[in-house]
Description:
8-stranded mixed β-sheet, 2 domains
Amino acid sequence: MGKPHVVIVGGGATGAALAHDLTLRGVRVTIVERGEVTSGTTGRHHGLLHSGARYAVKDQESAKECIQENMILRKIAPGTFELNNGLFVAITDEDMAYHDAFLAGLETCAIPYQEITTQEALQREPNLNPAVKAAVEVPDGTMDAMRLPLRFLATAQHNGAVIKTYTQVTKLLMKDKTVVGVRVRDHVTEKTYDIGADLVVNAAGAWSDKIAAMAGVHVPMQPSPGVLVAVYGRWNNMVLNRMHRSGDGDIILPQRTLSVIGTSSWVVKDPDQLEMKKEHIELMYKMGAMLVPAVKNAPMRAAWAAARPLIGSESGATTGRELSRTFKCFDHEDRDNVIGFVTITGGKATTARGMAEVTANVVVEKLGLDVACRTREVVLLPHTAYYRRGV
Ligand SMILES: Cc1cc2nc3c(=O)[nH]c(=O)nc-3n(C[C@H](O)[C@H](O)[C@H](O)COP(=O)(O)OP(=O)(O)OC[C@H]3O[C@@H](n4cnc5c(N)ncnc54)[C@H](O)[C@@H]3O)c2cc1C
């Protein structure tokens, strides 16, 4: 008997990490992605390797996932990150009021930290707002949004995964209540054809509910876009964060010779409707200047938006800030009586490997395989190996 075949819908961080996990467990994998790989939310995120500190007070499940994955990624993807650490700084009295809860949250979530003096903070980050009242160092880092998923994809490809880009799923093929494959449209050849599968995983991020609807089931997605602004000049070397409840424009991340200010948050019904609001760009400048006053006059290199794949009730959320950054794996057989279909969504780019491990555990059990996860140890191929396919 040949290897079981799994089709993964979506070539973002989540689909990439899952393809890597499943190929290591001896599963035949095909990824179908409607655009280029990472062309969804993944290729447009802020570039922060989260330590979890941002979520340590209000979203501790996500904070714990972030610190665990942060430590694993450092081992399996050496060279992908700038290990510059992050500094959470209190600028206002309101920020100071958050200080004790912040340290308590870091303790609870087992996020390593060190409080440094404001004098030391200003020595290390001379462009930091001199009004700084407190500073705490945590293991945040800078990453290239595309290179980490490309490393997952390169390694999966090396282990036999087939990656079909510009290939959009238009229908899930069903036999009674079982998903048996996907119908796709190849946007290059303009041909439509079917791909059979023993199981289909929906890793379509903010589009997950659209894919789920093709099987007649519902995933409670709340796409939540945010705007990011890159300005010329590397104004800080560490990732600077405001020490307060997550808000607008309260992170400045150094990326090569640029500084990226982020982000805002609102909710939409359709993740393809990403309106770039001028007020949001202005807000990034205004709030970014609270951390580093000089960014106020830094020329803009680029501004863009992307939609977070948040899980939540459609009516309950207004800004997206109230929704958790944790992830969920939906087993549609257990939940909806639809066989051969699993959805993995939510989470962060930082936690994609962990999301994949949980999902692959569900998938291999359904396929009757008994193979353990190896992605905590296997070092990934370099991102450049992805482009050498077929050469
Ligand atoms: C503004 C912003 C900043 C962020 N910053 C960070 C950060 O600094 N650090 C961090 O860790 N996380 C960050 N995140 C979160 C992170 O970007 C996402 O959690 C992650 O990228 C989601 O990956 P994914 O693979 O699940 O989704 P996606 O990357 O969106 O992948 C889903 C894919 O499915 C494809 N697809 C959709 N429909 C179909 C179809 N019918 N057929 C085939 N393919 C289809 C899409 O094209 C897409 O490529 C940020 C998010 C936003 C919005």
